[in-house]
Structure formats: structure tokens, C-alpha cells
Specification:
8 strands, about 30% helix, TIM Barrel, globular
């Protein structure tokens, strides 16, 4: 789980997203970044909350066998409570649900933690930070989408940098050890400004897996973030 990082939420954690990897060789994709990644990010899409479809618990279980890195599962689905237990059993170390679809968000977070998994909450670019106010004391991470979810390879939405900054200020004012994860359009040209704004868990898709050597790409990204 990512709990071991909780005492240092300023540590930069790179999370390559297998959404941008070759789906016919996911095992090899995670093995290629074994020495340079901190966490493997797994996007689960249901074709309803977002227009794409990706993978289910059996695929996650197969990935689990190929890596010892934490598996960070982002549930971009309309009914996450129906899938939480299955993904926990398949090997998820973190489960991130969207505030936009969880009617009983606190209950859902309790369900995740009861399964021994680290809980997180995601919000889309158009969702205000106020949607997180009542749940922040109960979670370990917030995922700010910096593109509209559903597809890889999108361009970063520039106004999200200020949103990161405002969320970091809110978290620090509360004195909570919460990670800020960002996902979408992050690369060598903007990773440093996003880390400076307060993000510390950086999901990278195309910036990692579209490169000939994903492991070397992560080394470059980590250097650029400092």
C-alpha cells in the first residue's frame, strides 16, 4: 500500500499509467519500469462514466503477479461499490473512486479501508474543490484529473495548475498528510510547475510509454520535476 509514504507527502512519486502501454503486453510493460517507477497506475473504465472500456479484476490479478510495485487502481466507473471488493482481492493497493458518482462517499471510503486498501477520491476538471471538503479527513490521497477522463494522450488543461495550488493550500491548512495525484497531459514541459504547485503523485502515460525506453523516460521526468 502507499501508506508508507504518508509521513512525507512532498516526496515525488512517479506513477506510469498502463493505459498508454501495449495492452497485448501489459506484464512486460510493468516489468520495464520496475526499477524507476514508484507506483503502477491502472485505469478502469466502464464505457458509461467515461466512453472507453479497459480492464477488469482478472487482468489486474495477472498484472499483480508481474510486479511488486504498488498497484493504484482508478475506478472511472458509474457504480464503484460493485467493483471494490473484486479489485481489492485482485491485488489493488489503492482504490480511487470519483466523488461525482458516489452518493454515499464516506461509506464507500470506509468499505475500501475495511478491505485493507488505501482509499482515494478523484474529481474531474469541472468539479469544484468544495466537493472534497467533508471527505478529506478520511482519505490518503486526492486525484485531480488534469484532462477530461476517458482517453490517453490528451493535452493538459492549464487552469488545473492553480487548482493544484489551491488544494495543496487547503490540505496544508488542515494539517493532513494527503497526497495530491494528478493525471493527464503531464510531461517534461510541465511536470516541474505542477510539483511546485503541490502535486506529488504524478501519473504519466504517453510521457512514459510512448517513449522507446519507458524506464529512461521516468528518470528524465524525475529529474525535470526537481
Amino acid at each position: 500500500m502507499i501508506d508508507r509514504y504518508n509521513k512525507n507527502s512532498s516526496e515525488i512519486l512517479l506513477c506510469p499509467s498502463i493505459l498508454s502501454a501495449d495492452f497485448a503486453a501489459l506484464g512486460e510493460a510493468v516489468e520495464r519500469v520496475a526499477d524507476t517507477a514508484d507506483i503502477i497506475h491502472v485505469d478502469v473504465m466502464d464505457g458509461h462514466f467515461v466512453p472507453n472500456l479497459t480492464l477488469g479484476p482478472p487482468v489486474l490479478a495477472a498484472i499483480r503477479k508481474r510486479t511488486s510495485l504498488p498497484l493504484d487502481v482508478h475506478l472511472m466507473v458509474t457504480n464503484p461499490t460493485d467493483l471494490i471488493e473484486a479489485f481489492a482481492q485482485a491485488g489493488a493497493d489503492t482504490l480511487v473512486v470519483h466523488a461525482e458518482v458516489c452518493t454515499h462517499l464516506n461509506r464507500t471510503i470506509q468499505q475500501i479501508r475495511a478491505l485493507g486498501v488505501t482509499p482515494g477520491v478523484a474529481i474531474n476538471p469541472g468539479t469544484p474543490l468544495e466537493a472534497l471538503d467533508e471527505i478529506l479527513p478520511y482519505i490518503d490521497m486526492v486525484l485531480l484529473m488534469t484532462v477530461n477522463p476517458g482517453f490517453g494522450g490528451q493535452k493538459y488543461i492549464p487552469t488545473m495548475t492553480d487548482k493544484i495550488r489551491r488544494l495543496r493550500r487547503k490540505i496544508d491548512d488542515l494539517g493532513l498528510p494527503i497526497h495530491i495525484q494528478i493525471d493527464g497531459g503531464v510531461g517534461l514541459d510541465n511536470i516541474r510547475e505542477n510539483v511546485a504547485a503541490g502535486a506529488n503523485m504524478i501519473v504519466v502515460g504517453s510521457a512514459c510509454y510512448a517513449r522507446p525506453d519507458p524506464a529512461a523516460a521516468l528518470v528524465e521526468l524525475r529529474s525535470a520535476a526537481r
